[in-house]
Every structure is written in structure tokens, then in C-alpha cells.
Amino acid sequence: MSVHRWVAAALGLALTASAWSQGNYPDKPIKIVVGFPPGTTGDIIARMMAPKLSEGLGQPVVVENRAGAGSSIAAEGVAKSPADGYTLLMSTIANAINPSLFAVSFDFSKDLAPIAFVAEAPGLLVAHPSGPPTVQALITAAKANPGELTYGSSGNGTVTHLYGELFGLNTGVKLTHIPYKGSSQAVADLLAGRITLLFTPASTVVPHVKAGKLHALGVIGRQRLAALPEVPTLAEAGVPGFEAALWFGLNAPSGTPRSVIERLNKETIRVLELPEVKTQLAAQSIEPAPGSSEQFGAFIQQETAKWTRVVRAAGVKAE
Asked: Topology of 3-121+246-314 in CATH?
């Protein structure tokens, strides 16, 4: 056999093997990497989905927690994994924010292929009962007394911090940021009246709102909360830019075969539409939001651009 024929034959065998591998995907366990500790929202979502994905894919789906650097360590690890569909990332809003806060060795929108938008955890802007009772009252008070109203967050550069900066940019008001090491102390200080406001995941404060200990001004998300149907979204209250809540999605390393992406997208949508999964997510104030990989990719671009603008305009620096 000539050298040319040998090369052609070898190439043909390689292409056939690749096609066979893709056509028989998956043929071994799949790993979903979560960039936060066990018990966090992304971890809860991944562990709810894993057994149902396993049923549809015919292979075990395991969840691995790889916390650190606001999910960037997990994202980098997945981005550098083989592009074969066996190592996936449970991505979050943090992955769209982090590149504007500190240097990362990968490009979230280029090095990680979008599979599907998975879910959102709606947020709330809440106030101590002594604070402004509505969003418009808040804006009026903040304009009359710049910097006097304080809001807490779970840390400098976190999304709960940047929500406050976004609110200021989109309303022209000045709020004073008080960072905490986590959300629990921020909620405690809000309940005690040591701070006025808090942008937070809804699940952490809905019981306090229902008990009358806090006042809900607006929902961060596309729609009102079933638990608090009388509370308008921030968009309804006249403040744009808060349509996207705390979001979660699935990504694979860039270069993952299209057929694999489509298979994973199809299974993700199937799982999120199961009544039992919807019920489990609803119990955690999480809303499924399945869609195409193209829609998720466009959303990532929009979110990255938005938070880059906010970080730069507010001069936010990572701690």
C-alpha cells in the first residue's frame, strides 16, 4: 500500500471511529461539575437533575463539587477537559460576572459551549419595615439623601452587591454598600434595622416577608413570585435590567460534537419538564427555564456584556 493510500485509510478509520463514538454517546458515566459547595442552589439543581438525566441517557450522571474563585476554578477545569460530553459545568451568573472582576485563564463564552439554560432562582429587593415602602419611594428618598440608604450583600463583587450597583446606574441614585461574609449576617442585620435594604435570593427572605418582619419592594426576575403575588417585578416598578434572576445552565468544553450537545439539550429539557422535578424545584423557589443551546449562548453574551458594564461603571474591585 502506498503512503498516500495508507494515510487515507488511517484517516478514514479515525473518522469512522469518531462517528461511531458520537453515535453511541454516552457509553460511560457523565460528570456535572458544580463550582460551589454542597447545599448551594446550583448543587441542589444538579443533584435533582442527575438521576433523571441518568435514566434518559442510560449512564450514571454524577455531581462533583469543585468550589473556589466564584465558580471559576470549576469552569476552567471543565473548559480544559476533553470535548467529548463526559465532563459538564453547572454554570451560573457568577461565570458571566467573574471575567470583569479578576483575570481568568479562559473565555467563558468561547471556551465553554452552551448546552441549555436550566433554571432561575428569583431574587427580591427587601427593606426593613422602617425603610421606603415602594421602589418609587426608595428612589425619591435616595435622590433626596444621596448615600444615606444602605444595602447589604454577601460580599464585594458578588451578584447581590452588583444588583445594588445596577439599581443605582439605572435609576441615578446613590446607595451605600455594606458587604458581609455571606448572606446570613446580612439578613440578620436587615432584620435588626442596621441596614435598610438587601438584594437577595427570594428563598432566604420570603418567610420574613410573610411574617411582616421585612417588606418586599420588587422581584428580580421575569415574573412575580407565586409565594408573593402582590409584589411587582422591578421592571413593573419602573426599573429595567432586572429581568434575569440568579441563573443556572449546563455547558460543555468548546468543540464538543454538535450531536452530543443536541442529545444533552434534549435530555435536559425532558428532565426539567417532568412534574416531579418541577415540584422539587418549586419547593426551593427555583423556576425551570429550559431552552435551546443557541438561546442560552446568546443569553450568556448579553449577561457578560451587562455585568462588564456595571463593574466598570461602578469601579468594583474583587476582594
From this structure: D-Maltodextrin-Binding Protein; domain 2 (3.40.190)
